[in-house]
Specification:
Blueprint: E1 9-15, H1 23-34, E2 39-43, H2 55-60, H3 64-75, E3 78-82, H4 92-101, E4 114-120, H5 129-142, E5 145-146, E6 152-154, E7 161-162, E8 165-166, H6 169-189
Parallel strand pairs: 1-2, 1-3, 3-4, 4-5, 4-6
Antiparallel strand pairs: 7-8
Amino acid sequence: MSPVDPVPYRIAGIAGSLRRASFNKSLLAHAAAVAPPSLAIDVLPDALRLPLFDQDLEDAGDPDEVVALRAALAEADGLLLVTPEYNFGVPGPVKNMVDWMSRPPGRAPLRDKPVLLMGASTGRLGGTVQAQGQLRISLAVVGAHVMASPPVLVAEAGTRFDGDVLVDEPTQKIVALALARFADFVATHRPR
C-alpha cells in the first residue's frame, strides 16, 4: 500500500466449491485471515449460487443474484478465486460465474480486474493446475489480469488441514507470499 492509497484494497473472495466442508472455503478463510494490511478480503459466500447462464434470462433482465455479484465485483479492486478441480477441469459453478461476469461485453466487472487464483485438491498430483490453467484462458479472454506467480496449488489437502484450519507450514508460507505479491499486483493492475 503506498502513501497515496491509505486504505486497503478491497478484494472479493470467492470459493469455487458449493460444499459446506470444502478445503477451498477453508483456504479462502485462511487467506482472508492472514492477508497483509494492504488487502481487505471480503468473502462472498453465495457468489456461485447463480442460475445457469442463459442469454434469454439476461435479455429478460438479470436475475437478482447476478446483479448483486456484478455490483460486488465492480466495487472490488481485485478478485481472489480459490477453486477445486473437478475431473481435471474448472467446476461448473465457477465457469458459470465467469460467464455471467463476462457480461455485458465491454463493461463486464471482470474486465481489467486483477485476479489471484488458488486451489486445493485431495489428489496427490498437481493441486488444481488444470483448473487454474483453464481459468487463466477464460479470464484472459474476458480481459482480467491474472497474477502469474507464485502458484498456489495445494495437493493432498486432507493432510494440510486440521478440520478447517490450514496447518501445513509450507502452504501457509506460499499463501502469504502470494498475498503479498498480489497487493503489489493490484496496485499496478487495478482499474482506475
